[in-house]
Amino acid sequence: MVAHSNIDYSLYLVTSRDTGILSPSNDYFHILEQALIGGVTIVQIREKDADTGEFIEVARKSKEICDRYKVPILINDRIDIALAIGAHGVHVGQKDMPVTTARRLLPKNSIVGIGSVWGTRTKKLTNPIVGVRGVGSILRILDGTDIKAVAIGGVKRANLLRTLHGAVSPTNHPLDGVAIVSDIMGAEDPRARCEALSTTLREFRDAFSSSSTSAFRPSTLTDNWSTDSIKHGVGELMQVLRASNPLVHQITNSVVTTQSANITLAVGGSPIMATTPEEMEDLAKYPGALLINIGTLTTENLDGMFKAGFFANVNKKPLVCDPVGVGATQFRKGTVSELLSTWQASVIKGNAGELAALAGSSEVDAKGVDSAGSFEDPIKFVKNLARRERCVIVLTGVTDYVSDGDRVVLLKNGHEMLGRITGSGCMLGSCIASFCGAAASVGEDLAVGRLVRGDMFLGAIAGILVLTIASERAVARNDVKGPGTFLPALIDEAAALKPEDIIDAAKIELA
Ligand SMILES: Cc1ncc(COP(=O)(O)OP(=O)(O)O)c(N)n1
Ligand SMILES: Cc1ncsc1CCOP(=O)(O)O
C-alpha cells in the first residue's frame, strides 16, 4: 500500500532477481531498463532473500534507472530501505485484512494488490486463488473510495485481456492496473513484452470507456435499432455464414453429437467435435467459434473445456456456453462456476431452470435438464445476468429472450415439436455458435480492446431465428408425421432457409 496521488498504476512491475525466473540471457538491471522503455508505469522492488546491504544496493541502483524514466519506485516490506533510498513509497502486506476493514483504514490514494488472481509459481500462496470474479467482488466494495486496485498473480500477456475484462465489478468498477513479476522479468525481450502489455491495457481502457454496460454491445445495431434492421442483419449473416464456412469447434454431449454436427453443416458451418486437451491450442487458431456444452459432463472432458475456452479468448474467438442441467447437481454448478471464472463466454444460453441456477436465483427450479416454471420478469432477469456475466444471455422458452445487458429482444418463433425431440436446445447452441463464428469473420472493427471479434448479439439472434423458423416450416410439411420425421425435416429446412424467409417469418419484439 502506498499513499501517493497521480500515479499511473496500469503496468506495475514487481521485480525479482530469482534465477529461476529471469531469462538466462538477461541481467536484472538490463531487464528493468528495457521494461521501463517498454511502458512499465510503476516499479516495486521485491527482495525476499537479500540481506539489508544487498537490498539497499539493488534498490539504490534500481531507483537511478527508474528516475531516468520518471517512473515511481516502491519497496516491498522495508520502510527503512524505502526511506534510505528516497523511494516513492512502500508496499506492506496486510495479511488477510478484510477489504471492508481496509476500506475504512487505508489513507487517501492507497493502493491494494488483489491476488493471487490466477495460479502462480512466483510466490507460495497461503490463500486460495481469488479468480477474476473474486477480484470484481472486491472492486465493488471499493466503489466510492479513492483506493486504487491492481490484480497480481499469474497475470501474463496471454490472459491480460481476460483478466481486465473479467475483473470489472457488476457495478462497472475496473482495475487500475495489473502487477506482474515473471511474465516481464522472465521475458526473452522484456521491452517488447511490456509494449505488448501496454497496448492491451490501453486498448481495453479505450474500449471500456466507450462502451456502457456491456463490452459486447453490438455496434451494427446501435444506431439503427429496429425489428427490420435485425431481420436484415440476420439475412446478411446467413449469407456470410454460408460463404465463410467457419470451423465450429464443439465440445458437446454424447447424446446429441451427430445431430449437432448435422445442423451445423445445414446452416453453413464446418463442425469439428474434438475433445482432447492437446488439440485445443491448434484448433483455436482457425477462424470460427467454440461451443462448450456440459450435457454429459465427465472429469475426463473437463480439461479440454478449460483449455479450449482459454485459447478461444486468446484468439478472440466467440465462445458459446450451454450449461445444460447446471442446476441438477453440485458438481455441474461448481464446474460451470469454475469454467466461467477461467474463461469469458461470449454467449451463455440456457432455459429458465439453468439460468436461474447460474444466477443463484431460487425463482425457477431445475428438473434435470428441464426447468420447472418461468421468471416473473424475464426481461429484467436476462438484462441483469448479461451485465453480471458481461456477455450475451439467451433465455430459451416459448418466447426466447436475448440481452447484451443494454437491450432485450424477444423472439417468438418456434414450434412445440422442438420440445418433443431430444437435443433441440443443444442444436440451438450449435446454430448460435455457427452464426457467432460468421459474425466474427466480419467483426474485426469490434475486436480492439475486447475479448471477441464481431457482433455476438446479432449472432445469437440469428441462430435462434434460423432454427425456430426452420422448425415451423418442418412441421408444416406433409411428410412430417411426428418427432421421428421432424428431426431430419428440421435439418433439411434449416439448410434450405433463405434470408427472405427470415424477413417474412421472424416474430421479433424489442423490449
Ligand atoms: C502489488 C502487490 N500486491 C500484492 C503483493 C503481495 O504482498 P504480500 O502479501 O505482502 O507478500 P510479499 O510480496 O511480501 O511476499 C505485492 N508484493 N505487490
Ligand atoms: C508477490 C505476489 N503476491 C501475490 S501473487 C505474487 C506473485 C506474482 O508473480 P507472477 O506475476 O510471476 O505470477
From TrEMBL:
Gene3D superfamilies: 3.40.1190.20, Aldolase class I (3.20.20.70)
Catalytic activity entry: 4-methyl-5-(2-phosphooxyethyl)-thiazole + 4-amino-2-methyl-5-(diphosphooxymethyl)pyrimidine + H(+) = thiamine phosphate + diphosphate; 2-[(2R,5Z)-2-carboxy-4-methylthiazol-5(2H)-ylidene]ethyl phosphate + 4-amino-2-methyl-5-(diphosphooxymethyl)pyrimidine + 2 H(+) = thiamine phosphate + CO2 + diphosphate; 5-(2-hydroxyethyl)-4-methylthiazole + ATP = 4-methyl-5-(2-phosphooxyethyl)-thiazole + ADP + H(+); 2-(2-carboxy-4-methylthiazol-5-yl)ethyl phosphate + 4-amino-2-methyl-5-(diphosphooxymethyl)pyrimidine + 2 H(+) = thiamine phosphate + CO2 + diphosphate
InterPro entries: Aldolase_TIM, Hyethyz_kinase, Ribokinase-like, ThiamineP_synth_sf, ThiamineP_synth_TenI, TMP_synthase
Domain Thiamine phosphate synthase/TenI: residue ranges: 11-115
Record carries keyword Lipid metabolism: no
Molecular function in Gene Ontology: ATP binding; hydroxyethylthiazole kinase activity; magnesium ion binding; thiamine-phosphate diphosphorylase activity
Cofactor(s) required, per the database record: Mg(2+)
PANTHER family membership: THIAMINE BIOSYNTHETIC BIFUNCTIONAL ENZYME, THIAMINE-PHOSPHATE PYROPHOSPHORYLASE
Protein name: Thiamine biosynthetic bifunctional enzyme Thi4
Species of provenance: Fistulina hepatica ATCC 64428
